[in-house]
Write a sequence for this structure.
């Protein structure tokens, strides 16, 4: 089980982890060991997530969420399989925590009397400065 927050825990059987060969340089070691990690999570098939959280996840514009509703995270930064698994799981939990946040409602405020007066004074000064630059008529 992976604990996302106090109210959300993901069952381990819902997450599929595959180990594949990593890309890039690395010598002979990279050609014979599967250290990169692919983490798969199906949002639609999950029983751990609420309908609200599922809809918020699907609405995110994240490249790790496919159109079919699956989260696919690839981690290949380390040479260690365990470290790559930890990084992938950390990214997964951060993605779910980010989608679980509720945006604060903005409270409209009014400009203070002093700020209005400062703005008008500055505007007046700028206008005077521009009139001083005009051509003088005799």
């Amino acid at each position: 089980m992976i604990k996302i927050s106090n109210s959300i825990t993901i069952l381990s059987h819902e997450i599929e982890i595959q180990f594949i060969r990593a890309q890039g340089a690395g010598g002979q070691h990279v050609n014979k060991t599967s250290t990169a990690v692919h983490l798969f999570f199906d949002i639609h098939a999950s029983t751990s997530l609420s309908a609200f959280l599922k809809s918020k996840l699907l609405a995110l514009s994240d490249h790790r969420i496919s159109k079919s509703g699956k989260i696919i995270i690839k981690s290949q930064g380390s040479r260690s399989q365990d470290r790559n698994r930890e990084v992938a799981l950390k990214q997964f939990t951060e993605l779910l925590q980010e989608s679980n946040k509720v945006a604060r409602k903005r409270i409209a405020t009014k400009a203070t009397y002093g700020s209005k007066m400062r703005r008008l004074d500055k505007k007046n000064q700028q206008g005077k400065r521009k009139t001083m630059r005009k051509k003088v008529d005799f």
User: Anything to note?
Assistant: Residues 3 and 20 are 26 Å apart (CA to CA).
